[in-house]
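Run log // design_07
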């Protein structure tokens, strides 16, 4: 496969400023890397956040994007197990030391040497990316690049959080937020054997949640003062896990009274505003609140298999590289149903 000297990339030169499509050098493929030709890249709210707030170790010019999918175009001299032409998902996590406390205890992004695409390393809003062959995941032929892209962040993140929740199979869990993460979460939780409630304030998103398999949906805004009683009725006494996949701080406080004893509230969405928590309920009901960032390579493999087996159908719509700035604006407004995916990396 012929590798060009330059490629198109969406470049961020300064925090808070629009990104621009530019011609930049194709990254060199190191001995321990693979060079992947990107065919699709999901547009995640985390990218929008990084474009404003940055990430520790970010260097400018920067290239965001961390839900990539494409084809291996080049293989480093020390790499085994992959071949040119293999179809792969390129997730957000690009590797770590593999030996520290955090790497050994499922907290990969806490490793001092971790690599995060779109954070401290160039991401997938580009035609090519040089990455770690140990973190990419094979894509079966029956999974499109457009559907494979979101598996690398949205999919692996909700899979990792569901695993960490330790909620008993068959119990009720909720996704507070029916956006790109929430819709993936609904389907993965169903595939894992849970009963699922989707919560949002947008009826269009809730309709899509029903379409992809949610057992019940609830509009928190229209429910008003009846929100908690409705959740308790729907879930036959309460939730064993509530995954906060929205940026609304109120979602944390509002659902704690609807938790079953021993349940967990897991923060996945980037919430920038403070909230209040009924602390006494945490003690009385033995509740847990914790954050969950990403998941493991094995989590990512499981998600891709669910897509290949038809158990998960990512809700996506295509866009161009030059449209990502506008998509960021729509993400902030909360108007996108599902996941926008860049499928045209040249315009």
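design_07 sequence
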């Amino acid at each position: 496969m012929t590798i060009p000297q330059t490629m198109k990339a969406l470049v961020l030169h300064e925090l808070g400023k629009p990104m621009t499509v530019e011609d930049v050098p194709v990254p060199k493929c190191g001995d321990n890397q693979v060079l992947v030709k990107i065919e699709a890249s999901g547009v995640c709210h985390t990218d929008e956040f990084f474009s404003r707030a940055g990430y520790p170790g970010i260097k400018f010019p920067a290239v965001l994007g961390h839900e990539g999918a494409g084809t291996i175009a080049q293989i480093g001299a020390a790499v085994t197990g992959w071949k040119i032409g293999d179809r792969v998902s390129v997730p957000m996590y690009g590797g770590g030391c593999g030996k520290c406390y955090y790497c050994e205890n499922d907290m990969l992004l806490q490793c001092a040497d971790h690599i995060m695409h779109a954070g401290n390393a160039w991401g997938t809003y580009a035609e090519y990316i040089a990455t770690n062959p140990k973190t990419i995941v094979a894509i079966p032929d029956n999974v499109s690049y457009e559907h494979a892209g979101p598996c690398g962040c949205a999919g692996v993140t909700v899979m990792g959080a569901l695993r960490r929740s330790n909620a008993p199979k068959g119990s009720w869990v909720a996704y507070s937020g029916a956006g790109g993460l929430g819709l993936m979460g609904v389907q993965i939780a169903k595939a894992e054997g849970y009963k699922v409630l989707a919560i949002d304030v947008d009826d269009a998103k809730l309709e899509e949640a029903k379409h992809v398999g949610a057992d019940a949906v609830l509009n928190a805004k229209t429910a008003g003062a009846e929100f908690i009683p409705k959740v308790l009725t729907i879930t036959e006494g309460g939730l064993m896990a509530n995954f906060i996949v929205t940026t609304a701080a109120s979602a944390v406080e509002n659902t704690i009274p609807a938790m079953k004893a021993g349940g967990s509230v897991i923060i996945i969405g980037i919430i920038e505003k403070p909230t209040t928590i009924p602390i006494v309920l945490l003690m009385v009901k033995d509740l847990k609140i914790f954050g969950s960032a990403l998941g493991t390579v094995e989590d990512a493999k499981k998600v891709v298999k669910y897509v290949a087996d038809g158990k998960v159908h990512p809700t996506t719509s295509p866009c161009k590289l030059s449209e990502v700035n506008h998509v960021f604006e729509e993400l902030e407004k909360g108007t996108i149903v599902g996941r926008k995916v860049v499928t045209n990396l040249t315009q």
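Residues 158 and 333 are 22 Å apart (CA to CA).
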